[in-house]
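Problem 12. The chain below contains 334 residues. Write out its predicted structure in token notation.
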Amino acid sequence: MNGFKLAAMAVVLAAGFNSLGAYAQNVIKIDGSSTVFPISEAAAEDFQKLKKGSVKVTVGMSGTGGGFKKFCAGEASLRTDVSNASRPITAAEMAACKASGVKYIELPIAFDALTVVVAKNSPISSITVEELKKIWEPAAQGKVTNWKQVNASFLDRALKLYGPGTDSGTFEYFTEATVGKAKSSRGDYTASEDDNVLVQGVSRDQGGLGYFGYAYYAENTDKLKAVAVSAGGKPGVLPSEKSVIDGSYVPLSRPIFVYVNAEAAKRPDVKEFVEFYLKNAGKFSREVKYVPLSDADYKHALDNFGKGRTGTAFGGHNEIGVKISDLLKRDPKE
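Solution.
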């Protein structure tokens, strides 16, 4: 092979390397909540089609806590650009991000009706918040093992529990809403960050009870039955778009979020993706069976993103029954 051909080959190889390098820079990394996963996955798929392969969007599912560990990682190369979260960032995660120099933009994207489920042909149809506490509180571990111990009218059958792992924002929200303290839970239950594992477990167990995001119930209504939740002595309410919007599904309706790395948001590909996501979040949310925010709330979130408004409206702790319109107006804390 003569010198000209060798030189030409070197140019082609260098061009390919540069092309690959440029492509690698156009990867948007998302991880975190399994609850938010279906919405972000829908957004990622449509955005990649729109960009005709020039941008790759990867969506992982390590739980809200696991996602924030990556998002706030000390080593920049390990960080994600966007973190899916089914609860607000905690004080400890805020501190981790601050130590790593990570500023973030908090964006609510939908409402979720956290759903309590049993097997399709289970006789259980309604449960109170007090009964959920009796089942899930730490003191119940190894002691509350039969449905009749929860309520004398329930069936005499072994109680088997299924729920998210401790890295899950759903776990934190549910325990705070039912037991009264985040992460306060019995540990003798089948735990998984993959909600599909929980679906299979409950659906095959006649004494099973589980909880997860509404989308996973809606996709499996042939296998599962949603249990109406009663709070404050009122009749039980089933999760639905109507009961979330009218405020009757309490205390298990909640906002869900994406957090965007403020530095990453300066990249044209990330900026375009997040704007695309927010402009279409209502459609994506409805497609995967979540409850969209109002058009005004999405516009306000888009304005906050455009202004690079960093920090959290929560200040490191969760709130039950919060209004999105109020959140978007608060002065964020970092």
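Discussion. The radius of gyration is 22 Å. Students who got a different answer should revisit the alignment rule from Section 12.3.
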